[in-house]
């Protein structure tokens, strides 16, 4: 019975790990979209260069 308990517990940790990395993947994907769609902090027109 203890062996079955260890097996079930090991599988539960494996499923938890998969869910954790799936959540992290979605979070990174959302952050990439936010960065991609963000307005750049500089304006291309005006101003003179030092050249």
Rg over alpha carbons: 24 Å
Can you give the mean pLDDT? 88
Q: What is the rounded distance between the termini?
A: 78 Å
Main sheet characteristics: none
Total strands = 0
The share of residues in helices is over 70%
Estimate what percentage of residues fall within beta strands.
under 5%
Total discrete domains: 1
Count of individual helical segments = 1
Explain the layout of strands and helices:
Blueprint: H1 2-37
Describe this structure in words.
With 51 residues, this protein is mainly alpha-helical. The chain has one domain. The protein has 1 helix and no strands. It has one helix at 2-37. It starts with a helix and ends in a 14-residue tail after the last helix.
Give me some keywords for this one.
mainly alpha, membrane, transmembrane, transmembrane helix
Please provide a brief summary of the model.
The protein has one helix and no strands. The chain is mainly α and 51 residues long.
């Amino acid at each position: 019975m203890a062996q079955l308990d260890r097996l079930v517990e090991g599988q539960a940790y494996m499923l938890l790990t998969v869910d954790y990395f799936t959540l992290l993947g979605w979070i990174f994907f959302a952050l990439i979209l936010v960065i991609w769609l963000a307005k750049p902090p500089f304006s291309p027109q005006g101003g003179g260069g030092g050249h």
